[in-house]
C-alpha cells in the first residue's frame, strides 16, 4: 500500500497496548474519487479518516492511518479507546 498519511488531528493514538488484535473490518463507499478521498483525510478540519482507501478501478491501495491507531470513521468511541 502507498503511505498517504491522514492529518494527526484526524485520528487517535490509543492508550492501550499496540499488540491489541484487529478483529473487525468496516467497509465504506466514499462519495469522492480516490485522490480527493485521501485529501479529505489530510485536511485536519474534516475530523475524519480511515485506515485504507482502495481505488475501485484497479484495486490500488493507500494506507492513511496505522493499524495500531484509531481512525475516525465508525464505531463507539468509548469501546474503541
TrEMBL record:
<dbReference type="GO" id="GO:0009253">
    <property type="term" value="P:peptidoglycan catabolic process"/>
</dbReference>
<dbReference type="GO" id="GO:0008745">
    <property type="term" value="F:N-acetylmuramoyl-L-alanine amidase activity"/>
</dbReference>
<keyword id="KW-0378">Hydrolase</keyword>
<protein>
    <recommendedName>
        <fullName>N-acetylmuramoyl-L-alanine amidase</fullName>
        <ecNumber>3.5.1.28</ecNumber>
    </recommendedName>
</protein>
<dbReference type="GO" id="GO:0009254">
    <property type="term" value="P:peptidoglycan turnover"/>
</dbReference>
<dbReference type="InterPro" id="IPR002502">
    <property type="entry name" value="Amidase_domain"/>
</dbReference>
<dbReference type="GO" id="GO:0071555">
    <property type="term" value="P:cell wall organization"/>
</dbReference>
<keyword id="KW-0961">Cell wall biogenesis/degradation</keyword>
<feature type="domain" description="N-acetylmuramoyl-L-alanine amidase">
    <location>
        <begin position="20"/>
        <end position="81"/>
    </location>
</feature>
<dbReference type="InterPro" id="IPR051206">
    <property type="entry name" value="NAMLAA_amidase_2"/>
</dbReference>
<dbReference type="Pfam" id="PF01510">
    <property type="entry name" value="Amidase_2"/>
</dbReference>
<dbReference type="InterPro" id="IPR036505">
    <property type="entry name" value="Amidase/PGRP_sf"/>
</dbReference>
Amino acid at each position: 500500500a502507498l503511505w498517504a498519511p491522514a492529518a494527526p488531528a484526524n485520528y487517535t493514538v490509543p492508550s492501550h497496548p499496540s499488540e491489541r488484535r484487529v478483529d473487525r473490518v468496516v467497509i465504506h463507499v466514499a462519495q469522492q474519487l480516490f485522490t480527493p478521498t485521501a485529501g479529505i483525510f489530510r485536511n485536519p478540519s474534516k475530523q475524519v479518516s480511515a485506515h485504507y482507501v482502495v481505488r475501485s478501478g484497479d484495486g490500488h491501495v493507500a494506507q492513511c492511518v496505522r493499524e495500531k491507531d484509531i481512525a475516525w470513521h465508525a464505531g463507539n468511541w468509548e469501546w474503541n479507546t
